[in-house]
Amino acid sequence: MIPSDRPRADVVVVGAGIAGLTAAALLAKQGLQVELLEAHRQSGGCAGTFRRGPYVFDVGATQVAGLEEGGAGHPAGIHARLFRHLGVDPPVAVPLDPGCVVDLGDGRPPVSLWRDPARWRQERLRQFPGSGRFWALCDAVHRANWAFASQDPVLPPRSWWDLGQLLGAVGPGTLASGLLTTATVADLLRISGCAADGRLRLFLDLQLKLYSQEPADRTAALYGATVLAMVQAPLGLWHLEGSMQSLSDGLEQALAQQGGRLRLRHRVDRLEPPARTGGHWQITGRRLTARPGDSGAPEADFTLAAGEVMVTLPPQTLPALLRDALPAGYRRRLQSLHEPSGALVFYGAVERHKLPPGCPSHLQLAATDPGSLFVSVSQEGDGRAPAGRATVIASVFTPARPWFGMDEAAYQGRKRQAMAAIQAGLEPLLGVGPADWLHGELATPRGFAGWTGRPMGYVGGLGQHPSRFGPFGLASRSPLAGLWLCGDAIHPGEGTAGVSLSALMACRQLLARRGVDLRP
């Protein structure tokens, strides 16, 4: 039994990344008493930021989708919808145009992903002659996807209410695109007669890996078709002024206005279900005096009681949090999950005049050592670097597990080698030599594990393979009553827009049990 003097909440949300902040603010707006617990000293998670002297670096995410206002028959993006519903101003942002410039490393001009749809059609047909049928098929699938998603479906359904929400979102286009539920983007290439275009395939592999953690032959067609359309109006990718932290700041403001409470440096260690505690969820953990990964001793233990719990952490954390309360079948499902990737991320700063004239904000380079790079460059006056200077963030996927278990000397040596390889890859792309860096440091999966608390420092969710996407993915409604999941491992997947949609879906399910129809 929980002592009567323990703090009591309607809902405890675990993890104050974008999904947790969104869920907590939405629930608080409906009048629920909400406690949001975060182990780090700041919110944001993988979309957080840090400072090094005069420079501000985005930790992981460097661009945002879902800020379009909508109109003329086009729905608003998920962030625009939610900020409007929560009654706070969205962060100041500018659309990226081009959204990305992709250098395929073949000596030919790079591919620019223009925001204007007509200009992008011209670009892709010039770069990939004969690919029109493929892009037309992707466009048709994307339109059906977007009409479906705008109705806020619940996937995968785990109750009659869930099923009703899913069926209510289905239209004629959805039924047609549903035939591709088990297909991959590579299947779309074959259907359209473009499978032999190796240059197009390389481009698709690079772009899809960014968002789905999978190449074209392992990315669900229904997911990939929309990812490939995200740059173009009326949608778009956006560059936030100041830093990515401004997205979290707005959600924190909304949570506070609605009476919710954010508790930083509160690491959750255990969740005990109502059957074991006398009728309520019990959440226990530690208040930390230092950020996760540091050597500071815990200040004190804490215990909270709640009617329901929403977990935004990777599902791989659930066995440790629930221990023997986790149903055996669900434990086996979690143990069988695909292992996500880790990332190596270089954070650097240079004099802006060292960069190529008109350097775009986002670039991608096909490379073998250390791997294909995704590069983000700050814009002049965006608050990330002093005037005349720029921050440069370059990331590459890497298996996470090998970065653990080595001694410190070996670890530091491997870091130096990886950073040198990334800098060498940036030299031909940006024209920046080793002596030009005003600042440089590297984050590894080991560092990300300390920053985010994610197992093995995993980045992103489970990977958008057809076997893990949509109806075949993990459900937000867990097998334990009153335990909900959201975040990048839950439909529709990664990115700040994806995790916000997952938070909205889980909140709609939770509130429906209380007789509330949430329709932001």
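The record above closes out task 2.4. Task 2.5 opens with a second protein, given below.
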Amino acid sequence: MRQADYVIVGAGSAGCAMAYRLSEAGHRVIIIEYGGTDAGPFIRMPAALSYPMNMSRYDWGYSSEPEPHLGGRRLACPRGKVIGGSSSINGMVYVRGHARDFDHWSEVGAQGWAYADVAPYFRRMETWHGGTDPDGVRGTDGPLHISRGPRDNPLTRAFVEAGGQAGYQLTDDYNGRKQEGFGAFEATIHNGERWSAARAYLDPARASGRVEIVRGLARRVVIEMGRATGVEIGSRRGVETIHARREVIIAASAINSPKLLMLSGIGPARHLAEHGIDIVADRPGVGQNLQDHLELYVQMSSVKPVSLYRYWNLLGKATLGAQWLFTRKGLAASNQFESTGFIRSAPGVDYPDLQFHFLPIAVRYDGKSAVRGHGFQAHVGPMRSPSRGEIKLKSADPAAPPRIFFNYMSHEDDWRDFRQGIRLTREIFAQAAFDPYRGVEVQPGEAVQTDDELDDAIREHAESAYHPCGTCRMGRADDPLAVVDPECRVIGVEGLRVADSSIFPRITNGNLNGPSIMVGEKASDHILGLDPLPRMNSEPWVHPNWETEQR
């Protein structure tokens, strides 16, 4: 019988962080992970980021149900099926989120998760290589290394300059007090390699000798007399149960965490009964509240040969790959997302609700070039969509993928904010900083101007930014739609917690890997029964005239 003090399902962003902290406290930990090694060059090389998320070896290969507001398209929903989870296949962009995001969590029932509460955990997890920190909010000795790219490409520098020319704020550190503005992007890259949660947390945890990885597919949580006692898995050894002496913790992603809860009898009673699953706890919120970030690429051709397109061929990729293999330097040592912007879409919006990812080439996440020649693009999309979707079971077979329905663009505000985002991006590209480079607009295209034309472009071209969350929402224990309480305990079952992006009450600004790791860090202290870290009362910068000015 294999057993440990704590059994964690999922060696992803939050799971790796918890394994590290629990083992650091002297406990034995087993992590159940279906995926394999993260040692391949496609994962370790930052510039190769488009490869692992399109490889069945590393990705679950999920896609949404047909989305009715996007012309019935099925959108890809990559999730890491590998050690390190999605931190091993993502774009490596590091964003904490805005302070107001976490204050909202606290206001809707996640007490103890306001920004003043979570900021110390962000600081604990970071080793920041970004420069000076006058407000003392960044970490200097944490497991997660965070760096900035060199911004050698003139297009990358032009994007920040154009933001300033358009009248927007500049920011020295969007992960510090002032998110709003244009500035350098940050990434989980260290010494030219992807610095995933596995590299940061799991490798040193395993070196302690107190953490074991067990390969297998989690079939259900074993619950006896109302208490979780282990996890049933299917592996090469057959079906077996991994026993937990203390607790079971699910950290399997916003897609697989609610799926596992439902397979274990925790979820909407009527839905579980449809699949012949015995009810352990009727929690109608399991699988609900699904959120994501959508984005559209505003793509331009370049009249000067300064983009990355010169390397977008077999010889160019081989040259950069060889340089990286031998030196861990060069263009392949960056994810090339080196400039960003966080802005407000309109007066009356109190903190940024649009994010930009700038890329000095016109290319999609699947690696297909949109421009037969030099170009550049900005990904733009709303940060706080009011649309909500759901995760449901397709069957009681643990190997079957779940039904993923995001219900994208189902609220009229989504269309308004998306149109505004496209128009503001065009205005930025029209600034003097881009005069030496600007060619024709490739997508949506200069002929696309009216609201109806923009809506058609959004319907046809909007893509997921791969930030699913919210499906096991955290809230008060008396909230019928909450799944976990503010200590990440599953309501109605003893000895069981969920700690990953699925517990977010509302999606945060920007990329979700940083907040997901923070959840693992903070959940660890709850699991260990420790006092929370001292609150960090640092007021965020808010535009003094936000009520009347958009910039």
